[in-house]
Design brief:
Layout lengths: L1 H4 L43 H14 L20 H7 L2 H4 L5 H4 L5 H18 L3 E3 L5 H18 L10 E5 L5 H8 L3 E5 L9 H8 L4 E6 L12 H10 L3 E6 L11 H4 L3 E4 L1 H4 L14 E3 L12 E3 L24 H37 L15 E3 L10 H10 L6 E2 L9 E3 L7 H20 L1 H6 L11 H6 L5 H11 L1
Parallel strand pairs: 2-3, 2-4, 4-5, 5-6
Antiparallel strand pairs: 1-7, 1-8, 6-7, 9-11, 10-11
The structure holds pyridoxal-5'-phosphate.
């Protein structure tokens, strides 16, 4: 246990310089700002420098990221994010800025204010919206904010303060945050069953709208099967005709960005996951940003201090007074916003369009090539991702077994068992940043796993065998994570 969590051993320590001590009788003492005094290191574990370096390198090797290899985690858009954007977001002028500086020394913030305005304007152009707030911190947070706006708008169009239209339609392919956000905003949820082609069925939609109590619909397009809603113009028209609003979950914009705009499809409210499409990695618990765009008629309902006009004639308002419409303290996750700004500036709209085309092309290439290894239940032309499953795998090998075995082959597993409408789903999103050799490598791995499933099924069922830990009890790992030495002691005690 000590070797895992505690390398401290009294008497072993990294190099220390004593301020008073001369290195040799004839040398002068070291200048104070260069010398490291043993006393200032008190409280830090006694670990020799070489062991310290080995410790952190070993930890980094236990991790897997897109910098190690392919990460086809469907709907998460785990693409390579250029390191230069990290460097730019880390410039001291950005990292040392203080939110109160916007109030007390506004002139020194003019650069960042211009960046925020320009970013909002670029996002508005890309999505076909009129005004943007950069405040929400994630996709789900954007949904929450957008639904509050929907609620406020509908209340403003009716008598009394009890909302008459209080239901939100969410297709059965939707990401779990959609119904969760709607429930948090006190809407009732109507789950819309998909048609046989995995798309919205207009007949089911009509029936759901019929009672006249629908506040709106939440859709992601392409949907989580990677399919474009062919009837999208009719869908948004039907919802509008029934007095509802249309919310676009932009988490899947990597499959559409620059090709087609949610605003033109009839959507009124849009959130974007900057931590997917726009150069910040998704997942890993880091900060995100879920900017929210609205059509002009909703601009007055946009969250407080961050209301911005995508048409370039409204300015980032740096006021910080408490405002009931704010959904976040201060100005949002500025580091993520800067990365998105740099990404859009470096690619330009034409570059965005081209990268989206590669994302779509890569997904279709991969779908075609793995189509005779995995089962593809909705085998239509896809956008940035597609869904396969384990049907036809020999010896009872399941999606989970395949996903775990992929780790042994050096590829991160896809998103599994989602969307829920596909039994044993594997949602595969290669992204535009993988080249042909990586895509072919993926096909080779899937082929090998199918052969292993036939010839050596136990190996697949016991996978992974090359990772720092083998197959975990996922529920226990999530509910009772072992994060401290005390947790570990508890676990060892329980296991005895
Ligand atoms: C389709 C879809 N919608 C919404 C979200 C929620 O985004 P976030 O994780 O930033 O809250 C996700 C996240 O993966 C998603 O895939």
């Amino acid at each position: 246990m000590k070797t895992i969590f505690n390398l401290d051993a009294p008497g072993r320590h990294a190099t220390r310089f004593n301020l008073e001590e001369k290195i040799m009788e004839s040398t002068p003492p070291l200048p104070e700002n260069l010398a490291r005094d043993g006393k200032t290191l008190l409280g830090i574990p006694d670990v020799p420098e070489v062991e310290l370096v080995r410790h952190f390198i070993a930890l980094s090797r236990k991790n897997y990221g897109v910098d190690n290899g392919m990460y086809p985690l469907g709907s998460c858009t785990m693409k390579y994010n250029p390191k230069i954007h990290e460097m730019l977001a880390s410039l001291e002028g950005f990292t040392s800025i203080h939110p109160y500086q916007f109030l007390q020394d506004k002139e020194s913030c003019e650069g960042i204010i211009e960046i925020m305005n320009e970013l909002a304007s670029m996002l508005a152009t890309l999505t076909g919206m009129d005004a943007f707030s950069l405040q929400p911190a994630s996709g789900a947070h954007g949904e929450f904010t957008g639904l509050l706006i929907m609620r406020d708008y509908l209340l403003s169009t009716q008598e009394g303060n009890k909302l008459h239209k209080n239901k939100i339609i969410v297709p059965d392919t939707a990401h779990g945050t959609n119904p969760a956000s709607a429930a948090v905003c006190q809407f009732e949820i109507i789950e819309l069953e998909s048609g046989d082609d995995g798309l919205i069925d207009l007949g089911y939609l009509e029936a759901a709208l019929e009672p006249g109590d629908v506040a709106g619909i939440m859709l992601t397009n392409p949907n989580t099967l990677g399919l474009f809603e062919q009837d999208i113009l009719r869908i948004t028209e039907m919802v509008h005709d029934a007095g509802g609003l249309c919310y676009y979950d932009g988490a899947n914009l990597n499959g559409l960005c620059g090709l087609c705009r949610p605003g033109d499809m009839g959507f009124d409210i849009v959130h974007l996951n900057l931590h997917k499409t726009f150069s910040t990695p998704h997942g890993g618990g880091g900060p995100g940003a879920g900017p929210l765009g609205v059509k002009a008629f909703l601009a007055g309902f946009l969250v407080g201090s961050q209301g911005m006009d995508g048409m370039g004639n409204c300015s980032f308002d740096p006021k910080l007074e408490v405002d009931s419409r704010n959904v976040k303290v201060f100005h949002g996750n500025i580091g993520v916003l800067i990365r998105a700004y740099c990404y859009l500036k470096s690619l330009g709209f034409e570059g965005m369009r081209k990268s989206t085309k590669f994302a779509v092309f890569n997904a279709n290439y991969l779908k075609k090539r793995v189509g005779n290894i995995l089962n593809i239940p909705y085998d239509a032309r896809c956008y940035h991702e597609f869904v396969a499953n384990d049907e036809g795998f020999p010896n009872g090998i399941t999606t989970e077994d395949i996903a775990k075995r992929m780790l042994d082959h050096g590829i991160h597993a896809p998103t599994i068992y989602f969307p829920l409408i596909v039994h044993g789903a594997m949602m595969i999103e290669p992204t535009e940043t993988e080249d042909l050799s990586r895509l072919d490598g993926f096909v080779h791995v899937m082929k090998s796993i199918k052969e292993e499933a036939r010839d050596n099924p136990d190996m697949v069922k016991d996978a992974p065998s090359t990772t720092p830990v083998s197959r975990l009890d996922q529920v226990k790992a999530a509910r009772h994570p072992v994060l401290t030495v005390d947790d570990l002691k508890e676990m060892v005690k329980d296991e005895k």
